Amino acid sequence: MLQVAAIIAALLSATVVAEEPRCVKWRATSGCDPAGPRDSWYDAACSATIATGSSGYCECENRRRVREVDCDHHPFTCEEACKKDAAADLHYPAGMEFVTCGSTIKLVHETSRFRLHSHEVNYGTGSGQQSVTAHGARDDYNSYWLVKEGDGAHSCTLGAKISCGSHIRLEHINTRRNLHSHNFASPLSGGRYGEVSGFGVAGDGDRGDTWVLECESGMTCKADDEACANGAAPSWARDDLVRLRHLDTQRYLHTDHSASFNNQNCPRCPIVGQQEVNAVPTKNDNALWFAAEGIYLG
């Protein structure tokens, strides 16, 4: 507890120097909702003028999103938005650029920007275990996960960088159940995809809790990754896109805005409005995630 308090104090007191963030792209959404389904057909270059009638957000470096707008807005370019909204795009504090053992993080789905989430709500089908979903709110306290070593492995060293290719588990902070998968079918996919659940007691589960970290950047070393520069595998950087491949089933952690819980498929459910999280056999863009808010041990 004292260690966590010290980490929070360090994060609050760290001096962070803001540089002008680079623009990546305008990311369009549908339904005049900046948090709605992505509509990549209408994505645009940083220099393009985003006219009234378009909804979405500007993506700047380090996967930051700014200028989230519905259809009623003044015209602008993402190039200028990333410059003007620099306060929202500070660089990470020194020593906090990577995901490490013992860090508590929120994992964000790249396409929908929903966060990996769990709660004390069990599935009514399949395994009957604790449900895992993707939640649209940034500030929901049920979206924090503890990063730790794979099942049966020696305990990782607190603050040690997690290497791409590592076997890891994610423990849900509030319920202390591990992110898990198996051969049960997910509730909304008609038997096509695997169920993802929360499993275990007080952080102890089984082999079905282990996931393989696959970094989209491959073997590219980051500037501050000394171990990688010396021949080790690259470390998991906070702005990296990653996939989590389930060790037992070889399926990928996945969500999609088209598979959402609503009053038709889940009447009076406490998870209406959240997206199903499942495990799919194919490596696709809806299996891409990145680390966002949290307490990072350095």
Gist of the model:
InterPro entries: MIR_dom_sf, MIR_motif. The chain is mainly β.
Structural descriptors:
298 residues, mainly beta, Trefoil (Acidic Fibroblast Growth Factor, subunit A), 3 helices, 17 strands, 8% helix, 34% strand, globular, disordered N terminus
Task: Report the major sheet.
Answer: 6 strands, antiparallel
Say what the CATH topology of the largest domain is.
Trefoil (Acidic Fibroblast Growth Factor, subunit A)
Average pLDDT number: 87
- The helix-strand sequence is HEEEEEHEEEEEEEEHEEEE
Q: What portion of the residues fall into strands of 2 or more residues?
A: 25-35%
Shape summary: globular
Percent helix range: under 10%
Indicate the CATH architecture of the largest domain. Answer: Trefoil
In order across it, which strands form the biggest sheet? 14-13-10-9-6-17
How many helix segments?
Answer: 3
- In whole angstroms, the N-to-C terminal distance is 16 Å
Low-confidence spans = 1-19
Rounded to an integer, what's the Rg over CA atoms?
19 Å
* Total number of strands: 17
In total, how many domains does the architecture comprise?
2
Helix/strand/pairing category: mainly beta
Q: What's the level 1 CATH class of the largest domain?
A: Mainly Beta
Notes on the protein architecture:
This protein has 298 residues and is mostly beta strands. The protein is built from three helices and 17 strands. A hairpin with a 3-residue loop joins strand 3 and strand 4. The N terminus is likely disordered. It comes from Achlya hypogyna (Oomycete). Pfam families: MIR.
